[in-house]
């Protein structure tokens, strides 16, 4: 079973009006669902997507301290347009492949990809697929302020990922090692244990997130109403 929690965080309250907010959803994963239980730095616990008016925020939580073990890689696959006719996973430039050349494909292709690594100072890259090839969009460094708690965070502009307010996209998050041509070790979308490092696989892309069209937060009366309703929660049986 996977639970998705929708939460509203407010910033800068003045009187009855909030000036800024971030709306997001947290997706949980079973722990110890990987081939070696000692690999806690890539054992997914949860991932959280949120957005403001211009940026998509993502944080991934793993079971171990990623400041102590820094060789893990984190991959995000995003699909938000109709299915593309595409070659198979062997074509790294195709929408069913990925620019990090990992043995992970998606059933209908992806439009955007995020890849991040923590060793050698860490870094992250975002790409979009133009129907012919992958194009790098933004580069940066992951936020490791909470690395000791197993949390790595990133922020990308919505524009760089081809996203806009109101878009719903399908996605998956994978953890793996640093070698090219390896597969994922843990996928957010499934609790099935991957058989090893070198096995090609398909992600189902059955998780979804909708970019909030408005991040305005209600006034005091609206907040009181939300408090009465409690935290919205959806459960999806797998």
Explained architecture:
The structure is a single chain. The protein is mainly beta and about 240 residues long. The protein has one domain: Immunoglobulin-like, CATH 2.60.40. It has 1 helix and 15 strands. Strands 5, 7, 8, 9, 11, 12 and 14 form a 7-stranded antiparallel β-sheet that branches. A hairpin with a 2-residue loop joins strand 1 (about 1-15) and strand 2. It is globular. Residues about 5-20, about 85-90 and about 215-238 have low confidence and may be disordered.
How are the SSEs ordered, and which strands pair?
Layout: E1 2-14, E2 17-28, E3 44-51, E4 55-62, E5 73-79, E6 104-105, E7 112-117, E8 123-129, E9 134-140, E10 151-157, E11 168-176, E12 186-187, E13 201-202, E14 207-210, H1 220-229, E15 233-236
Helical proportion, percent range: under 10%
CATH architectural grouping:
Sandwich
Distance between the termini: 5 Å
Computed Rg: 18 Å
Q: Return residue spans where pLDDT drops below 50 for at least 5 consecutive residues.
A: 5-20, 87-91, 217-238
Topology, number of strands: 15
How many domains comprise the coordinates?
1
């Amino acid at each position: 079973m996977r639970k998705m929690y929708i939460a509203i965080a407010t910033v800068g309250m003045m009187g009855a009006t909030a000036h800024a907010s971030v709306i997001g959803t947290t997706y949980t994963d079973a722990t110890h669902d990987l081939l070696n239980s000692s690999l806690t730095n890539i054992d997914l616990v949860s991932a959280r997507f949120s957005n403001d008016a211009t940026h998509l925020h993502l944080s991934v939580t793993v079971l171990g301290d990623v400041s102590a073990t820094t060789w893990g890689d984190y991959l995000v696959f995003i699909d938000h347009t109709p299915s593309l006719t595409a070659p198979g996973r062997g074509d790294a430039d195709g929408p069913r492949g990925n620019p990090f050349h990992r043995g992970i494909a998606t059933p209908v292709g992806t439009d955007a990809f995020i890849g991040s690594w923590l060793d050698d100072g860490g870094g992250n890259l975002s790409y979009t697929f133009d129907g012919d090839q992958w194009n790098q969009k933004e580069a940066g460094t992951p936020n490791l302020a909470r690395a000791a708690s197993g949390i790595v965070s990133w922020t990308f502009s919505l524009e760089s990922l081809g996203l806009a307010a109101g878009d719903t996209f399908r996605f998956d998050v994978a953890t793996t090692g640093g070698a090219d041509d390896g597969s994922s070790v843990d996928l957010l979308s499934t609790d099935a244990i991957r058989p090893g490092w070198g096995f090609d696989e398909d992600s189902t892309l059955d998780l979804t997130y909708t970019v909030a069209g408005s991040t305005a937060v209600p006034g005091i009366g609206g907040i009181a109403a939300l408090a009465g309703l409690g935290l919205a929660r959806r459960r999806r049986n797998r």
